Amino acid sequence: MEKQYLRPATLKEAVQLAFENESDFRFLAGGTDVLVNKFQGNDSANCLIDITGIDELHTVIVNNKHLNIGTLICLDELKKYPEIKKEFPVLIDAAEAVGSPTIRKTATLGGNLLCENRCLFYNQSEWWREAVGNCLKCDGDVCIATGGKKNCFSKFVSDTAIALISLDACIEVVEKKGGYIVRVEDIYTGNGITPRKFEKTSLIKSISIPLNQGFRSVFKKLRQRETLEFSSLTSAVTINKNGKIKIVLGGVDPKPVVVEGTIADDKQSLIKQAVKKARLVDNDVYSREYRKEMIVVYLNQSFEELSLY
Ligand SMILES: Cc1cc2nc3c(=O)[nH]c(=O)nc-3n(C[C@H](O)[C@H](O)[C@H](O)COP(=O)(O)OP(=O)(O)OC[C@H]3O[C@@H](n4cnc5c(N)ncnc54)[C@H](O)[C@@H]3O)c2cc1C
């Protein structure tokens, strides 16, 4: 099929082009995930719809109740906004944990929320995957990590999603037939093969975070090197002014693991819930046992840093 590169100037045009090319396209933002996947043979879409020419996706707007961040704001740019720095420093910590400085200058916030799940047995060259018999995520009939035939446990690796979910963030989605708002945590399925719920033709317009919640947060990320490494475990713990605690984990399940509680709850019991929910398998450079232990370590450290002990 003929390869196509399209560059709409408006949102309306973008969703129309998506509708027309539904069977064989990808939106292109920073391209740091989608293009790598294409070169690795993990994405075969022939049509790329580059949304970077749409001006309204580049804005950051503060209204009375929310901060709305345009989907195309680059991860490196977030720290330049005083409102984000003051109200949501955890989002900057998470953004700074992604990739490398060069990647963060191109990678967008919206693209990070939709970054593809990863697995040691999937993110390999085509010939490597063929040699081991292809896994469930690339048209094989068995999960190489577990030997199972039904479930793909590829890891959810977006770092900013973990911070945003802990901050009760929502996204504004635009489709040809209209738009809607949905909580970030609700767009993920928990199925490693098809990790996201919304339509392929849906476009994220902005990410909105509630203001005046008195959020205090701690972010942590486990990885082999401080740069250029995807997550082996990401955690964000946020407490709001009413004492609501939200624990969010990444890198340990096909979707973000979320546990909610209050300041009055027994912290060890919250940690136990988080460990129990994480469907860890051996698909990472660190063993599942080590990552499980590190969940306990990170959450205890986070509670301590938030003076909750
Ligand atoms: C070496 C390397 C290291 C990396 N390390 C990390 C890491 O540590 N943590 C991490 O989280 N990520 C990491 N990444 C992945 C990637 O860089 C980030 O996830 C990045 O934020 C993706 O944003 P992007 O704008 O480049 O997305 P793109 O690659 O342009 O798009 C990603 C996906 O989102 C879709 N998309 C993008 N924008 C929209 C939109 N507005 N509406 C609908 N669909 C959209 C695309 O179609 C595609 O499916 C790494 C990548 C590389 C190459």
Could you characterize what this model shows?
- It is globular and about 60 Å long.
- The protein has helices at residues 11-20, 34-39, 82-87, 89-96, 101-106, 109-113, 126-131, 159-166, 267-277, 288-305, and strands at residues 4-6, 25-28, 47-50, 60-62, 66-70, 170-175, 178-183, 203-210, 216-222, 233-239, 244-250, 257-262.
- With 309 residues, it is of the alpha+beta class.
- The mean pLDDT is 96.
- Strand 6 (170-175) and strand 7 form a beta hairpin.
- The strands form 3 sheets. Strands 4-5-8-6-7 form a 5-stranded antiparallel beta sheet, with helices on one face. It has a 4-stranded antiparallel beta sheet with strand order 9-10-11-12, with helices on both faces. It has a 3-stranded parallel beta sheet with strand order 1-3-2, covered by helices on one side.
- The chain binds flavin-adenine dinucleotide.
- Flavin-adenine dinucleotide binds at residues 26-34, 36, 51, 71, 75, 98-99, 103, 107-108, 110-112, 114-115, 157-159, 203-204, 228-230.
